[in-house]
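Q: Could you fold this chain for me?
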Amino acid sequence: MNIQFRKLHPSLKIPSKSLLNKWLIECISHEGFILGKLSYTFLTDQELLVLNREFLNHDTLTDVITFDYNQNNIIIGEIYISLDRVLENSTINNVDFSTEILRIIIHGLLHLFGYKDKMPQQKIEMTTKEDYYLSLLP
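A: Sure. Below is the predicted structure, expressed as structure tokens.
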């Protein structure tokens, strides 16, 4: 099954859907999961803020929200990404936009694998995993 990508942002671009699809399926397999149904939606800050308020009761901007509907080892989820946040974070982190968007794309998927990032040690593990999977990009 393919991964769905929806870009609702009016101007910022996302990487090639075919490249993303191949890479993400490889990452899913590497973690021992099976792809069920996965969708990525790319939004503006304000659109993601509405979701953050409605579903998580958070009144803050964020770069990614992941909804996990996994069943055992079958990946089923929805990942929403603010391209505005990604652009701002790329400037803050002094990396190009394409690198930052790929990091956030894999970050959302890592949450579906069960990785967390609330505690310092979890953040280190998450960043290590992000770096590893970014290294697998064709």
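A (continued): The longest strand covers residues 34-43.
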